[in-house]
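User: Predict the structure for this protein chain, please.
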Amino acid sequence: MAKNSTIEWTHHTFNPWWGCNRVSPACDNCYAEVWAHRLGQDLWGARGARRFFGDNHWREPLRWNAEAATEQRRARVFCASMADVFEWRADLDEQRARLWQLIEQTPNLDWLLLTKRPQHICRMVPWKNDWPENVWVGTTVENQRVADVRLPLILRIPARVRFLSCEPLLGPLDLSSWFSKRGYYSIDWVIAGGESGAHSRPMHPDWPSRLLKDCLRAQVPFHFKQWGNWAPVDELNAELRGTTLEFGDDRPVPMVRAGKKLAGRILQGTTWNGLPQLTCDN
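Assistant: Here is the predicted structure, written as structure tokens:
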């Protein structure tokens, strides 16, 4: 949990528990698993334990809600950075029920529920077709194969906001046909970014550029979070020696393992901080 989170697209993070199980290629270098291991916590895997928290932890969002009300603003809460709210485990049901109650008790907070398991959402939330106004639901789509599976699931959810996290972006991704697809709700926000960490996989610069182009055309807010550990030499405007990398059918690109901080988050000369224009942000 963190007040004033360093994640660019949220204000706070809240974890109802720690621990998860890998389900797709985006999980291969999971930062949360690495962080838990650094703290001596063995919390990953289908049979792994999960770390739960006490009442003081659960009272923090109530304080954030009161602050937001006093300051007459809204605050975004990313839930959960160290877990997946929709992991299919019976021992998490009690914590999930407590989370739904907490969300309803904090109307000044917009809760961002990001999952790699959108197939479980409708069976786990209590709201059916009457979702609270302060819930944004999203799913990770790291490549086209995953997107084709998860998009039909997330875009049938009647939440106020549906968003996509294309991070880590591991391949070319075409969302253009989904921005106005008949029979589905809209995509309201797209986040994209590369992978960080020692074993990170490079992101071809054309991949986020294509997403940006599609979002601009569809007038969907776009947020570019980071290049990650690798960045194209041309984007850095620095005298760095790059390595020309091959990306299958995409053009070869000179890239450098610059590290997350130096690589930055500039795409096509601009910082992209798009957000859904549904709430008042300060």
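The mean pLDDT is 94.
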